[in-house]
Design goal:
The structure holds two protein chains of two kinds.
Chain A lengths: L15 H8 L2 H20 L6 H26 L8 H17 L4 H24 L4 H20 L4 E2 L7 H4 L2 E2 L2 E2 H19 L1 H11 L1 H6 L4 H27 L1 E2 L14 H11 L11 H20 L4 H22 L8
Antiparallel strand pairs in A: 1-4, 2-3
Helix pairs in contact in A: 2-14, 3-8, 3-11, 3-12, 3-13, 4-5, 4-6, 4-11, 5-6, 5-11, 8-9, 12-13, 12-14, 13-14
Chain B lengths: L1 H11 L1 H20 L6 H26 L7 H19 L1 H26 L3 H20 L4 E2 L4 H6 L9 H19 L1 H11 L1 H6 L5 H26 L1 E2 L6 H12 L11 H20 L4 H53 L2
Antiparallel strand pairs in B: 1-2
Classes of the chains: A mainly alpha, B mainly alpha.
Chain lengths: ~350, ~350
């Protein structure tokens, strides 16, 4: 920590901690401190937590939610809040994929078939949001429609296909000791980050999210942006649906609902991931890297609680607490900055 | 005279008229296609459903009037249901009911306080509390479906009073009247409209954000709690992960009732009509043996259609205003030209 140049003013330089406390509220620091203490305590005391195998498990668990969260991050960054239809898009897509596989179309054709549905869902929702519909309400309605369509198509039954199938490599295969789904998560995270940082599309996402009026003035309407980001989110949902279906060789429309899994509703988990990562819900601030880390973080806490032997109630509670915590902390930290409004 | 009055009413409140016509239309469709729909018993059943859905619709209407939306309403209702069913056996129904509603109201109050204090959008916080409250209800219910053992309470709640009503629906109607009076005739009610319709102007005019926000979310929590209690006591069971459909149904009811997502518009009468419409649809579809997911599908389509109408009308109004401004500018320019010509001639 040697200074490169002479400090301009002669006042004693405040330490990092002092700076933090000066700049931000004490409440935020206190909350963070409590959290870190609990986290470290849990990490040290949990049996078998600090092992390589467990680390791999954490990343694998984070992968599905993480991929969806990366898709949703684009929507959030572009200032369109979030989509409440992530789980329902996945539900329709999982039915489409399983129907394709059960009809013996093979992996590639079923994949394309599923993506058609994802594109339709994404583009139609994006268009509705783009013309000025509120994203929350539009996707709440779209969620009902998509789920209803999936249930109607599958008659609310399980669609299953036999084990030696073309999608097995995605669900249960592994590459260099890592499950393929983990590899996919890492690849998608890297490419999404590159897309956001290095392409003009990525910069437009930030521009429209940070200042919609400026975006419109420079010729970047939210209409096309909403369509693009919703399509990205839907495609990510569809990919997760395909990966999940490949794991279990079957599909039912409620696979992503909270009645099925123990760790809560998938849509809310995805939104939680985006928020816990510290992305600004109002748009313009954040990155997909934050969402990926958020997914890993939530998965770590969940894993720790499982190792401590908690039931699903406290685990759902913990995720909810993490969201509320991160909202409060980030709201206090950003107080007075432009990304607050 | 009467016709003129009606016409002026339609011109004043086109949203409400649209809602009434839609409700009437939905009712007629089922009344003509199903023989059992237009009977006293069905009306009683509709009112029973209205008790819950009306409450949720009312809560969401208030939130949307204030320019926010409460996503945690299903979780809050589920928590109240779980609490009341869990503690009725040990504490008796009235105490358990009071505890459940009080807990829900306090949760709403805290939410409102944090939203105003942190100056964040309600959707952000309520997504968090959605999950948090599910966790709490799982915890209270010990991850099981809790059940009543004494079934005299469900019987009492569903006794028929005055042909169409039960104690539950009468309470809800009283609640509607109270909230309607509150919203229209008190200062605090008008503040809620103010922070929804024009928040910056309202804040500049000296209205604090905290008070209306806390009131809105406390009422929302109260309504959710009461709805959850009614569902829990009526069916005698409660699940911690249940009641997720309430958010969609309540939002549809609120939007049919004529609230605008931009805030500041709509009212309690609209909420009643919206909730009734959703109820007609729901009950009619149940009568025609439609599976639950299809009901969700229809509700989703209804919501999308209403939203599209609303967005379309907003875009239309904006365009109209822009044309008006352009026209004004043109007129002024013409006048200026004439004046200049007139000035140049002599």
């Amino acid at each position: 920590m040697s200074p490169i140049s002479e400090p301009i003013n002669q006042l004693p330089k405040p330490s990092i901690l002092e700076k933090l406390i000066q700049r931000h509220s004490k409440l935020a620091i206190a909350l963070l401190a409590i959290f870190i203490v609990v986290f470290v305590y849990g990490m040290v005391t949990a049996p078998n937590f600090l092992t390589l195998f467990n680390f791999k498990t954490i990343i694998r668990d984070a992968a599905l939610v993480g991929i969806m969260a990366i898709g949703l991050t684009f929507v959030t960054l572009s200032g369109n809040f979030f989509l409440l239809s992530m789980k329902e898009t996945a539900a329709l897509c999982i039915i489409a994929f399983a129907t394709g596989m059960a009809s013996g179309w093979g992996f590639e054709l079923s994949f394309l078939f599923t993506m058609v549905f994802a594109l339709i869902a994404g583009i139609s929702q994006g268009a509705l949001i783009g013309i000025g519909g509120n994203p929350i309400v539009v996707t709440l309605g779209a969620a009902g429609v998509l789920y209803g369509l999936g249930a109607y198509w599958s008659d609310n039954l399980v669609v299953s296909y036999r084990r030696p199938h073309g999608a097995e490599w995605l669900g249960t295969g592994s590459f260099l000791g890592l499950p393929n789904i983990t590899v996919a998560f890492i690849l998608i995270a890297i490419s999404a980050e590159l897309l956001l940082r290095k392409t003009s599309f990525g910069r437009q996402v930030y521009l429209i999210g940070a200042n919609r009026a400026a975006g419109r003035a420079t010729g970047h309407e939210n209409f096309w942006m909403a369509i693009k980001v919703c399509t990205i989110a839907s495609v990510c949902s569809a990919f997760v649906a395909i990966a999940f279906s490949a794991q279990v060789s079957s599909a039912q429309v409620n696979y992503f609902s909270s009645e099925f899994g123990s760790s809560g509703d998938m849509t809310i988990m995805v939104i939680a991931t985006v928020m816990v990562g510290g992305n600004s819900i109002m748009g313009g601030f954040g990155s997909t890297l934050r969402s990926s880390l958020g997914a890993v973080f939530i998965s770590t806490v969940d894993n720790m609680m499982v190792l401590h032997g908690f039931n699903s109630g406290p685990r759902v509670f913990a995720v909810g607490l993490m969201i509320v915590f991160s909202i409060i902390v980030f709201a206090i930290l950003r107080r007075g900055s432009r990304s607050e409004e | 005279m009467a016709v003129e009055k009606i016409l002026s009413f339609i011109k004043q409140k086109p949203d409400l008229m649209f809602a009434i016509i839609l409700a009437f239309f939905v009712y007629c469709v089922f009344a003509f296609t199903n023989d059992y729909f237009m009977t006293h018993r069905t009306t009683f059943a509709i009112m029973e459903r209205f008790a819950v859905l009306g409450l949720v619709g009312l809560a969401l209407t208030l939130c949307i009037i204030a320019g926010e939306i409460d996503l945690s309403i299903g979780s809050n209702a589920a928590l109240a249901a779980v609490i009341v069913v869990r503690f009725t056996d040990s504490l008796g129904a009235p105490t358990a009911l009071l505890i459940a509603v009080a807990v829900s109201t306090i949760i709403g109050l805290i939410q409102g306080y944090f939203i105003a204090y942190l100056r964040i959008r309600a959707i952000v916080l309520t997504v968090g509390t959605l999950m948090l409250l599910r966790g709490i209800s799982l915890f209270v219910a010990e991850e099981k479906t809790v059940m009543l053992t004494d079934f005299r309470i469900p019987d009492f709640i569903t006794t028929k009073v005055l042909w169409y009503f039960s104690p539950a629906s009468l309470t809800v109607i009283a609640m509607f009247v109270l909230v309607g009076l509150f919203m229209n005739f008190t200062k605090y009610g008008r503040e809620i409209y103010a922070i929804g319709g024009a928040r910056k102007e309202a804040l500049a005019a000296g209205i604090s954000l905290k008070r209306p926000m806390i009131i809105v979310f406390a009422i929302s929590g109260f309504c959710a709690g009461l709805g959850g209690v009614i569902i829990g006591l009526r069916s005698g069971t409660a699940q911690a992960l249940g009641l997720q459909y309430l958010l969609l149904a309540g939002t549809v009811a609120a939007f049919i009732g004529g609230v605008s997502i931009l805030g500041g518009r709509g009212g309690v009468v609209g909420a009643v009509i919206g909730a009734l419409t959703v109820n007609f649809l729901n009950t009619g579809l149940v009568f025609n043996v439609t599976p639950a997911f299809m009901v969700q599908l229809y509700l989703g389509i209804l919501l999308l259609v209403v939203i599209m109408f609303q967005t379309g009308s907003v875009i239309f109004e904006k365009r109209q205003r822009r044309y008006q401004i352009l026209k004004d500018i043109d007129n002024r320019r013409e006048r200026l030209k004439k004046e200049m010509k007139g000035g140049a001639q002599p």
